[in-house]
Structure formats: C-alpha cells, structure tokens
Design goal:
Elements (H helix, E strand, L loop, with lengths): L6 H4 L4 H64 L18 H11 L8 H4 L6 E8 L6 H11 L4 E4 L8 H9 L3 E4 L6 H4 L3 H19 L5 E2 L14 H10 L3 E2 L4 E2 L10 H12 L5 E7 L5 H15 L4 E3 L14
Parallel strand pairs: 1-2, 1-7, 1-8, 2-3, 4-5, 6-7
Helix pairs in contact: 5-11, 10-11
Bound molecules: zinc ion.
C-alpha cells in the first residue's frame, strides 16, 4: 500500500477508511435523529404548555368577568337616566317584563324605584339578598350554621357535585328554608358557553340532578361570570331565551363581596365591600358571595355582614323568591 499512493490509488477506499466513513455516517444519522426527536419532544412540550396557558387565560378571563361586571354595572348606574346602554336590537318578542326591568336597572341606579316594593307608594324597605355561588363546598355547613344562628335565609347558586359527602348539604340548604339556585352543572366556561346545545344540556342536567337530590325543581339561575360575561361564545341573549322558555329567572348581582379573586382577601375588606355597597341600593341589593373551600374569609366575614345589614334602617335579609326583583346585568 505504501508505495501506491498515486492519484488513482489515493481514491481507493481502504477498509479502515470505510469503517471510519461508516462510523461518521452513523454519528451524523444519529445526531440528525436525536435532533429530530428533540424537536418533536420540544413541540409536544410546547403544545401542552400552550394548552395549559390557554386554559389559565380562560380561567382568568372568567374571573375578570366576574370582577369587572360590577364596576361596569356601577358605571352604568352612575350614568344619566336616559343613557341606556342596553341594546334592544332583538325584537323577537323575547323582551319580557323582567328584561325591561333590566334595561331600567342598568340605565339608572334608581331603577329600584320601579321595583314592585315601591310601586304602591308604601314605605320602602331595603331588601337584601345574600347569594352564595359555586357551592356546595367544605364551607357550606359552616355558612349554614351561621345563617341558622342569625335566623337568616339566603340563596345558594350551586353547581353539580357528585361526591356523596355533598348530598346532605344540598338537602340541608332546602330543609332550612334557603333558596336553591342553579349556577351550571360543570361551571366550566369553555364547555358551558361553547354552544347553545351545551348550555341546555348542562342546565337540564343540573336541574334534574338537584331535583333528584332534594325534590326541588330550581327555577333560579345565575350565569357563571354573570349574564354580561365576555367569555361566552354564544350570544347571551340566546341563553337568556333558553331560561325564559323554561320559566327560569336569572339573577346577577349589584353588590359584590369582592371575594372572587384568586388570592383571598381579608374578611374586613369583604365586610366593608358589602356594607358600603348595600347602602347604595335603597330597594334591592343582591349580594354576590362565594361558597368554596378556599373562601374561608368570606365565612369569617358573614356574621359581621349580617349584623351590619340588620343594623341598617328599614332593611331585611331575604332568600330569593318569585317575588324578588331580578337584578340583571345584561348589556
Ligand atoms: Zn361561579
């Protein structure tokens, strides 16, 4: 070999060289495959990550909807009597009395003057409705104990929870004279508000579920995020029609405890929020509170809230009923 390194022979591939080339090939192919595999893995990871973040964004959006609605509402209420921001474009005969009242409410805080309790010119009593969303939870029993202690009736807008530990709670709400309202079975904004069909399925499921648990057919509804939520993929008017077709009345709120935030706010703030805002409404105040495992400060605040409201002149705390003036946000 040594003597034959001419131009021709130099291009000859020796076994060693072949092995080297072979090795190099393997290394290159291996590297390429590793890179491809890594890229695929990275893509999969990022896809999952994006999906999770999207979920998070949706949750936060929903939460913001709950939090901002009230300020929207208050702003609207502060506006002048005639500036009604509610569009009446849907003329398809669905505007019933309740909706007209809504329009009145949003246009002016003094809508309460139109509410039934003052129509006959009698002395006005402020009616306060304490409403608890998202239950049942591990806190519900304590809430019920406090309400019982003060002999106050409230309204629970519940979701569907199949764990048998909640069976007695659903029953207790009803047995103790509180109003059982619906707050969607799933409380999953993404599926609930994805289509009219989804909403109907969820509604029927919850109504039947509650009937099976308690024997009560609930006729009150609170939309997750309120009727003015900006999360729904479906026109909220369509969903409101669904409720109206079934004779179900929906309630939003005009007073918020502010306890929908992810990080708990202290009970003093909750008490202040409620007591300050309730006084803005001389006739009807529907107070939004939450009944959830992580809303312990709401429970702590409850006794003071009740005492504070009961200390107000001509004010009573009531459970929502057919006679309750429906506070509704719908824009
Ligand atoms: Zn809720």
């Amino acid at each position: 070999m040594t003597g034959s390194q001419g131009g021709k022979n130099s291009r000859e591939i020796t076994p060693q060289r072949r092995r080297r080339i072979q090795r190099l090939k393997h290394i290159i192919i291996g590297t390429i495959f590793s890179v491809i595999f890594l890229l695929i893995f990275l893509c999969a990871f990022l896809t999952v990550r994006i999906y999770m973040l999207q979920e998070r964004v949706n949750e936060l959006e929903a939460q913001m909807a709950e939090n901002t609605e009230l300020s929207d509402l208050n702003r609207a209420a502060d506006a002048s009597d005639q500036s009604t921001p509610v569009s009446k474009e849907d003329s398809d005969s669905v505007m019933n009395a309740a909706e007209s009242e809504t329009v009145g409410f949003i246009s002016n805080q003094s809508v309460s003057d139109n509410s039934p309790d003052s129509a006959d010119g009698e002395q006005t009593i402020r009616k306060v409705y304490l409403t608890f969303d998202d239950g049942p939870s591990d806190e519900t029993d304590t809430i019920l104990d406090i309400l019982e202690e003060y002999n106050v009736k409230a309204t629970f807008f519940v979701v569907g929870k199949t764990d048998s530990k909640y069976d007695l709670i659903y029953k207790r709400i009803v047995a103790e004279g509180h109003t059982l309202g619906m707050h969607s079975y799933s409380h999953n904004y993404q599926t609930l508000y994805a289509s009219r069909e989804n909403f109907i399925d969820d509604l029927d499921k919850l109504q039947q579920f509650l009937y099976d648990k308690t024997g009560v057919e609930s006729m009150f509804y609170r939309f997750p995020g309120g009727s003015s939520n900006t999360v729904s993929q479906v026109d909220m008017n369509d969903l409101i029609n669904v409720l109206q077709d079934r004779g179900i009345v929906y309630f939003d709120w005009n007073v918020s405890a502010g306890d929908a935030t992810e990080t708990a706010i202290d009970s003093e703030t909750i008490v202040n929020n409620v007591l300050t805002e309730v006084q803005n409404f001389p006739h009807t105040a529907v107070v939004l509170l939450h009944d959830a495992d992580d809303k312990k400060t709401t429970v702590e605040a409850l006794p003071e809230i009740i005492e504070g409201i009961e200390a107000m002149d001509d004010t009573e705390i009531l459970p929502i009923s057919e006679d309750t003036f429906p506070i509704q946000h719908k824009k």
